[in-house]
Amino acid sequence: MDVMKSWVKATIMSVFSLASIFVAQTVFAASNPIGQAYSDLGSSGVYRPTPVKANTTTSFDIFLKPHNFQEFFQQAMDVNTPDNLQFKNYLTPSDIQSKYGQPSTVTNSWKAYLKKHHLRTLVYDNGIQLTVTGKVKYIDKTFHVNMNTATYHSNPLQFGSKKPNIPSKLANTVWTVLGMTDHNRNYVMPNSNMPLVKKGNDYSFSGFTNRFVNQYDVQPLYDQGMTGKGQTIGIIAFGNIKKSNAYHFWKHENASTDMHRLTTKVVPGDMYKGNLVSLNEGETTMDVEYAGSVAPQANVRIYWIRSPYPTVMNMINAYATALNENKASSLSTSWGLFGSSYLNLLVKHKVLSSKYLDVLNFVLAQAAIQGVSSFVASGDTGALNFDVKGISGNHLLMDRSINGNLPFDANPWITSTGGTTLPFDGNLPTKGNEKSLGKVTISSERSWGTDYIWPLIGNPDRLAQVPDRIDGLLRGSGGGFNKLTSTPTYQQGVPGVNTFNARNYVSSLNQFVLGAPLVHGTDSGRNYPDVSADADPETGYKVYYKKDGIQWPPSGGTSIVAPQYAAMAAVINSQPGRARMGFWNAQIYQLAQKSDSPFHPLNATTDNSNLYYTGQPGTVYNQASGLGTTDFSKLAEDYK
User: Fold this and answer.
1) 196 φ, ψ (degrees, to nearest 5)
2) CATH of the domain at 324
3) Which of 127, 148, 178 is the last residue before a domain boundary?
4) Residue 43 maps to a domain
């Protein structure tokens, strides 16, 4: 697994790999290591696309106009809402085409037209999406464009100085296009190339699958024979794995080692920096191992995008591929698309469609309408997301703010999983070559935020001894408000939603603040996360990831929460006679308001933050940990 140095090392968890294996990093070889560490939090190098040549084979997507657009989203909610007449009347992709997509006459005409121009077309069953693949020279000729300089225009099919000569009966069916401009040098991506694993580091508080199982009342479901058998968990991944690692882990955890339970589906799409694609990805390894151990008899299917970094097109294609197969009853994602400030920068430079959010919402709502339970990690930078303020040469200029909107990680059509810290008592770190920071005592489960470590730093001289840990001391569970959308109906009126308690734990200069007063306020939008579980690497998990002399490195972050929740959806779905759980959010906010709720909110206002938001006593929701932790045995009993 690769992570970026400085700010990217801290934020890559919420940007691309939302959490990973946490290890100490090498001390910066600088005369002022603290200054260097803080300076690096404010900018990032960038990757620019490698120019494509005439005979390079590449791909892009054409999205056709859906019919009854608003009705589609309403039905996605209706089929997941108890007492609604449409409840559990899930649709297949073909059903979606019949009701909302373009007819086969249109998709077949597109396919035939593109074939005449030497381009292959994958038509998705929903009648909305086409993935087009071919040599650059044929794409350039067909669309009157140079893919290396392509930009968006008002015409959805125009990317050069003149419009392509595409028959109007086809052109008029187009909603937007994604991927055509991904080779333009203005389509920049943050630089990520630092090694993950460092020898000799460990956390004695790390555990295995039973940590999650025991903490969140899973064992009674196993005792009833609910093990995920007959279900498939989909893992969205931007790197492949060595399957032997997963099977070794599953054997260690007494999960099924049936050689047919783990499969990989390659996702069609473009390759961004293909030379950096990992075949032994630490994040994917962690997700697969824990999905397959929490649901010990479920199948696990990796939807692998052969690109190291998510573009909007590649992320959407991963979901579209999984939904088109309709095999997985739950999906987990530990990668993100970064915040809207970065994506809007690409829109401003005309290398990303302004309709990207509408398309993303549509695809994620398609999961809901098909009865697929989708989970995404909420991020590991706490409430303070990184905003891209601009680009200077080959550097993105960054700022940390509670106002950073996340169009994917906090999407209203996906269940966002936050993180907690389990009780523990001991010295940090407990092993390795670093000096101990001191003793920490956590008496009860709390929202994950590293503010509990800050008193051990004490003064600048102490901090100067561990400058490489500065980024790690500014981590926590992602959570807050996504103002790209109004508050979803399932959150409206829920006690704690759109109100908050908070403390300014981090100054405007990224300095630690001790003893900050409690503040109260209101806000709006999609509140996130929805649910939480143990994610703090100090109380995290061990992964079998044999690399560079290490076999069992520790892991944590909210991205280990998402696959375990997806696994629990598979476990509950495996109960005989049960229909797919579907989109969780439509039900869980109702269940959380009952007197005997399966959710346990973490509502303390002290020792319970994600570096800004705290709990709200007397409510069922707070932005540090959502509805809180889950009693899965109770959830299985109450969930309709």
Assistant:
1) -85, -55
2) 3.40.50.200
3) 178
4) no
pLDDT of residue 455: 87
pLDDT over threshold 90, residue 44 = no
In sequence order, what are the residues at sequence separation of 6 or more whose Cβ sits closer than 8 angstroms to the Cβ of residue 566? Answer: 233, 234, 235, 291, 330, 331, 332, 373, 375
| pLDDT, averaged across the chain | 88
**Which pLDDT band holds residue 255 (cuts at 50, 70, 90)?**
very high
Q: Residue 116: which CATH number? A: 3.30.70
Does a structural domain hold residue 22?
Answer: no
Q: In this predicted structure, what is the pLDDT of residue 201?
A: 47
Q: How far apart are CA 493 and CA 506, in angstroms?
A: 30
* Claim to verify: residue 162 and residue 211 sit in the same structural domain: no
Tokens of 222: 């196993």
Under the banding of pLDDT at 50, 70 and 90, the label for residue 392 is: confident
91 in a domain, yes or no?
no
Is residue 233 assigned to a domain? yes
**CA distances from residue 256 to 117, 216, 253, 260, 541 in whole angstroms, order as listed:** 48, 22, 9, 10, 20
- Give the whole-angstrom CA distance, residue 5 versus residue 194: 6
Same-domain check for residues 121 and 239: no
H or E element, residue 482: strand 480-482
The CB density around residue 49, as the number of other CB atoms within 10 Å, is 21
Statement to judge: residues 170 and 207 lie in one domain: no
Based on the structure, what is the number of domains in the chain? 2
| Residues β-bridged to residue 63 | 129, 176
Confirm if 532 and 420 have CB atoms less than 8 A apart: yes
Q: What is the DSSP string of 253-304?
A: TT----TTSEEEEEPPS--SSGGG--SS-HHHHHHHHHHHHHSTTSEEEEEE
Same domain for 200 and 107: no
Q: Give the pLDDT mean for 460-468.
A: 64
- Distance, in Å, from the CA atom of 580 to the CA atom of 369, rounded to the nearest integer, reads 11
Q: Domain residues for 163?
A: 57-66+101-178
Q: Which two tokens stand for residue 388?
A: 């891209």
The amino acid occupying position 391 is I
Q: Which of 118, 151, 178 is a domain's end point? A: 178
d(C-alpha 84, C-alpha 97), whole Å? 23
CA 479, CA 166: separation in Å to the nearest integer?
45
Phi then psi for 306, rounded to 5 degrees?
-80, 65
Cα 279-281-337 angle, rounded to 5 deg = 110
Beta carbons of 27 and 43 less than 8 angstroms apart:
no
Is residue 279 located within the same domain as residue 167?
A: no
Alpha-carbon distance 537 to 446, whole Å?
14
Q: In terms of pLDDT, which residue wins out, 259 or 509?
A: 259
